[in-house]
Amino acid sequence: MSKKFSEYLPGILLFCIAVILALFTYKDYGMSWDEPSQRTIGLSSYNYIFNGNNDLLTFQYRLYGAGFELPLIFIEKILKLTDTSEIFMMRHLVNHLFFLISGLCGYFLVLRLFRNKFLASLGFIMLVFAPRIYAHSFFNTKDVPFLSMFLITLCYLQYAFQKNKVFMLLILGLLCGYTTGIRVMGIILYLFSGFFLLLEMINGGMNKEKTFNQVRKMAILSFGFFVALYISWPYLWGRPIMRFGEAFARMSHFGWEGKVLLNGHFYQSKELPVFYFPVWFTITNPILWLLAGFAGIALIMVDFFRRTSVYMQNTPERNQLLYIFCFAGPVFAVLALHSTIYDDWRHLYFVYPPFILTALWFLNKLGKGRLKFVVQALCMVQVGFIGYFMVVYHPFSQVYFNETVSHKKEFLRKNYELDYWGPSNYDGLKYLLKKQDTGIIKVSTDLIDANNYDPDYVNPLTNNLSLLPKKDRDRIQITIPMKADYFITLFRGHPGDFDYPAIEHSFTVLNSTVLCIYRER
Questions:
Q1: Has residue 141 been placed in a domain?
Q2: ∠ at Cα 146 (116, 108), nearest 5°?
């Protein structure tokens, strides 16, 4: 076995284990609130390309990038999937496998940065088995594919500048363009890449030949970026510049209006306090990773002011500065632009990989001395706690909270949003089908207005009904509360109890009820 392959082997083994776990468990995860509309984004782009259907140009979600949704439609068409259960189960599996591939790329990146197989393996675990993001990697085709592509592009960016080959900049541009085709915020990777080339031009002393070479590299990078962006986002094909600007403006001020629960208070989505993201980020990630990440950021910044010239050149240190900017930049942009974020911090999940890379830098520094085995032991203990939580509360790891908040009975439910997207409805429906193995089961939810009932209204209950096999779907009838046998609630917008005769069943995480099934009569 070659030395190079032996360095890659731990990451490959971890990846294979994660794939095997996924193949056994991907059908356990329910459907999120937005999955049908996400699929429609890809479907409208597909029909625009192949069927000449111009509905895309007036489609409600036309400003969302189709970079990941369109390939999912291609897979759906190639496999000739028609049943909703088959379609969305396929989407869950593909979404997760793409996430795992990005985790493997993260392993390669950490290995190149630190030449340490333990840290690279730990990096894979930190990236892939972040409890909330892991669950979202099945049912979230908005934020997690962007996170995945963001990490893949970061991995290749480091490799391209390390090797300093012109053709690699073309590939880097393509990756940056495709990442932006998933979500417009991906443009920051293209801008940072261009900034690095500009720094190298300045460091070259503005020599005529070197300047021309750097300009040529910028042109190649830009060519790849615009080609990939244009191809992956059909809505841009008519008027690319105007429509991209329109999409960027819309995404920075998304028009969702609703209330979110934080620290026991409801806030309007457009009037969130400045501490919204910091609080969610610090209570929903493992404590040791948080301590290492913030310590890494602090020490890197101190070192930057001491050795600024080193960070301004093509050195490993410059990569660490990039990761800090990729973490802090979008956060400050959200605050400065007053962008609408909600549903914990899922819109900013993509800042998690660069944060973890700074944490690994700190652990690498700390583990070079006498504390090496202490650091490794602490990391293994943290991994053990994470693994225990994910096994015990499977498949509800999207409701992970660390030890900085109370886990007393119903504290989390009454103070924070829990299963806000509703995939746990899938488990509620499966429970009822198992309990009553024949006949029609009538169910309702607090999201249905009894006085103005619309049977076509899409909510997490109807979404998860479509995820069930057809024979089970036919046995479930969704109706208004007064006509139902059971009432299912996620407690979103209503953290208190409901006044029903009895509780049939409930699903709890960390002593708080995530989903409750009440008997109507």
A1: yes
A2: 15
- Whether residues 48 and 163 share a domain: the answer is yes
Q: Are residues 383 and 423 in the same domain?
A: no
Residue 72 C-beta-side C-alpha neighbours within 13 Å? 31
Q: Which pair of structure tokens corresponds to residue 106?
A: 């993260």
Establish if 407 belongs to a structural domain: no
List the domain range (segments joined by +) for residue 486.
414-519
* pTM for the predicted model, two decimal places: 0.96
DSSP state of 313: S
The rounded distance, in Å, linking the Cα atoms of 280 and 276 is 6
Judgement on whether residues 483 and 354 belong to the same structural domain of the protein: no
> What distances in angstroms separate CA 129 from CA 289, 445, 507, one per listed residue?
12, 32, 22
How far is the CA of 492 from the CAs of 232, 316, 416, 502, in angstroms?
35, 45, 9, 20
d(CA 130, CA 279): 17
In a shared domain, residues 351 and 446: no
Same domain as 419, residue 383: no
Print pLDDT tens along the chain (521 aa). 567 788 999 999 999 999 999 999 999 999 999 999 999 999 999 999 999 999 999 988 888 999 999 999 999 999 999 999 999 999 999 999 999 999 999 999 999 999 999 999 999 999 999 999 999 999 999 999 999 999 999 999 999 999 989 999 999 999 999 999 999 999 999 999 999 999 988 887 667 777 888 899 999 999 999 999 999 999 999 889 998 988 887 776 666 678 899 999 999 888 889 999 999 999 999 999 999 999 999 999 999 999 998 888 888 899 999 999 999 999 998 888 777 788 999 999 999 999 999 999 999 999 887 888 999 999 999 999 999 999 999 999 999 999 999 999 999 999 999 999 999 999 999 999 999 999 999 999 988 776 776 766 778 899 999 999 999 999 999 998 888 999 999 999 899 999 888 999 999 999 999 999 999 86
Residue with token string 């005529």: 208
430/346 same-domain check: no
The three-class DSSP label of residue 261 is strand
